[in-house]
Design goal:
46% of the residues lie in helices and 14% in strands. The chain is built from 9 helices and 7 strands, in the order βαβαααβαβαββααβα. A hairpin with a 5-residue loop joins strand 5 and strand 6. It binds adenosine monophosphate.
């Protein structure tokens, strides 16, 4: 069964469940995820020159300058592992970044999935979010680890992301509503936007997404 949709962008406020749903889509379509925030956090962790330049911006919830982000992500997207398709989580985050992909690269986007939740829900989800150093995500109310404070998969200690504090979450959401949400119009005009209700349970949202994908086979 071949799918027509192989190059997907995920949009949605912080906490909408993009990364969790990206993992479901990855398994279903057998394509790889490229997680913008993950690439950045890896750079920060490795203390590379670039990592040192961006640490403050990421940890305080600002946006990395467009051209830095574009260079980093286009370089990644051209790797062999993304030749058959990809799920982009966290990029593009501005119309400038999206236009660059469309106008200056051969990277074609098939669909843009917007997973929508309210700001109240986003704040609640992020302040209760805990992650392991490998990026596995838990929630103190809805997705508890089997052992308190420990990742089920890696057995490593769970932490709160430096940018998941209430003040930084509000700043990130404001940027999302002011800046990133302009992408919704941009992709709507291209007839690529599909909206999903992210306030349902993880299972229901992934059923919705996978049903949509199942309906789009060649
Ligand atoms: P995320 O894990 O997607 O929430 O991203 C974490 C942080 O990385 C964001 O708050 C930004 O500081 C930075 N970041 C991630 N993706 C981008 C992007 N496409 N453009 C600019 N900054 C980004």
């Amino acid at each position: 069964m071949e799918h027509k949709i192989k190059r997907i962008i995920l949009l949605g406020p912080q906490g909408a469940g993009k990364t969790t749903q990206a993992e479901r889509i990855e398994q279903f379509l057998d394509i790889n995820i490229l997680l913008a925030g993950g690439v950045l956090r890896q750079e920060i962790k490795s203390k590379s020159e670039f990592g040192l330049k961006i640490a403050e911006i990421v940890n305080t919830g600002g946006l990395i300058p467009d051209q830095w982000m574009i260079d980093l992500m286009v370089q990644n997207l051209n790797k062999e592992e993304y030749k058959n398709g990809f799920i982009l989580d966290g990029f593009p985050r501005s119309v400038t970044q999206a236009k660059y992909l469309d106008e200056k690269t051969k990277i074609k986007i098939d669909k843009v999935f917007n997973i929508e939740i309210s700001d109240e829900e986003a704040v609640d989800r992020l302040s209760n979010r805990r992650v392991c150093p490998n990026g596995h995500i838990f929630h103190l109310l809805y997705k508890l680890p089997k052992t308190e404070g420990i990742c089920d998969t890696c057995q490593l200690k769970l932490e709160q992301r430096a940018d998941d504090t209430p003040e930084t979450v509000l700043k990130r959401l404001k940027i999302y509503r002011n800046e990133t949400s302009k992408l919704l119009d941009y992709y709507h005009q291209q007839k690529k936007l599909v909206v999903f209700n992210g306030s349902e349970s993880i299972e229901l949202v992934s059923d919705d997404i996978l049903n949509y994908l199942k309906a789009h086979v060649r």
